[in-house]
Design a protein that fits this description.
It contains 10 helices and 2 strands, in the order H-H-H-H-H-H-H-H-H-H-E-E. With about 300 residues, the protein is mainly alpha-helical.
Amino acid sequence: MTHFAHGQTRRLVERLALNLERTREDASEKAVHDLRTGIRRLKAALRTFRPHFRKSGVKRLRRTLDRLMEPAGVVRDRDVVRKLASKGGAGARSAIGVELKRQRDSAAVELVRESRSALEKRSTDEWMELLGEREAPPASPAASLLPLLDEYLTAGRALASGEPDAETLHRFRLQGKRLRYAMELFQPLYGRAFAGYLERMRAAQTHLGEFNDCATLLRLLPELGAAEAESASLQAFLERRSAALLDGFRRFWREEMDARGREAHWKRYLSQHRPAAAGKTGARTVLCDHDSQPLPPD
């Protein structure tokens, strides 16, 4: 498993370097989205495979990722909520649209600066050398995934049957991301049906992500300097949309995630995986035939 952990983590470090190169040149919406997703995936690898790396190396890499994540989050949030505000009647030329763009541009300058700093700090090989290698007791993918699945399904049932606030739903959304990204790390050890399980996770995240976009814009509204009438109109639009999205999430959860026998099916499938075989071809670790496939989008 140590070779497997290093191979998967190296792929993510390499991808992060490519995303940083793109962001350094142009902090476009797509470049920032890809960077942010890459950071989350790499953090998931460091968390999941922690026993196989030196603690000091993990800590230093995480600090670098945190410095990137803060401005990337601001840029990404503004990109998303500007589109949402436009749907609610506050277009690019409105006071809300202008202020959101100003905030976005300011954060993008900081993100470009942090991206350049991260690229100058260490190469992929240097980061992997810093992480080092520790032999850890044998552990199966199921040992990592099943506890996360249990927590996720238990929390999801409570939310689907209750009246959760925006902060609770946001925490649950992040919990789902942790499970999904951990699943992606182990995808090479499962069969083709695994893609269907990931697709269900992505669909659940879509419902929650759109709800979170509304909550983010509602939170930002008071600081955007809009006239009272413009703010009130947009707030009403966001509240209606939030209610509809929450109803959609509840239906999806009942029909797709919590249908009769679904939990047992998930657990049975995740418990049946191939061994983490590792071979070497040049400098690249060959995990299995799935390893050449690109990681799925966010």
